[in-house]
Fold this protein.
Amino acid sequence: MSTTRALVLRTAGTNCDAETVRALELSGASVELVHLRRVLAEPARLEEADLVVFPGGFSYGDDVAAGRIFGLELRHGLLEPLCRHVDRGGHVLGICNGFQVLVESGLFEREPGQHELPPRGIALHQNASNRFECRWVTLRAERCAASWLEPGLLIPCPAAHGEGRFVVRDEAVLRRLEARGQIALVYAREDGTTADAYPANPNGSVRSIAGICDPTGRVLGLMPHPERNIDPWHHPHWTRSALSGARTEGEGLEFYRRLVRAAAGTRAAAAVP
């Protein structure tokens, strides 16, 4: 199998790009870190990638709203190339601020094969606690359109955000997300049960949603940071675990490894005449 080609986009205020690049490289991807301006000037760069990643941080200082400026730049400058990337089998990942960027871009809500965007029905709002939340949480993968995610997989990792509360316009939007398999990750307790209260659900997201995908399963966004748990000693309690001496990696690395394999597999399938 050929190496997955990943393109990580950064801009002013992005600050999680280095650890994201490392997680992708450890997962077997060939990674290029590129400034957004270069891709806006050369949209054909997306055609060379199997996976496009928007890392975390505080793009443009979140001065208007978290991810809004970056998201509008995508919407007005790269929407069609990104849609073509997904429609030909490419994958897209947004982490924390990158998730906020993708929500603002409208990429989660478009119909596959179409470049027109419907009215917005989802948003990432200010945390219910009305403060920045920085804590370790547990994610649970759901059965969803992103088939590379194993249902029930638990991923402990840090969350660090002020506007991470997933909200919907109305119940019809939530039912549509559920029906189309777009709820990909939820906040869970350590035993795997759904976290329906603070602090295990750190922001008050509806339905405890921590991450969603688009209907194709090839666009995924999540608020917590799996790339911050790729070595066993990243977890603050790693020395207390009975498995601490036997573990060689953090649980977040499996998330990236699965994604990288899926991106390579989709390209290989698309290449078959």
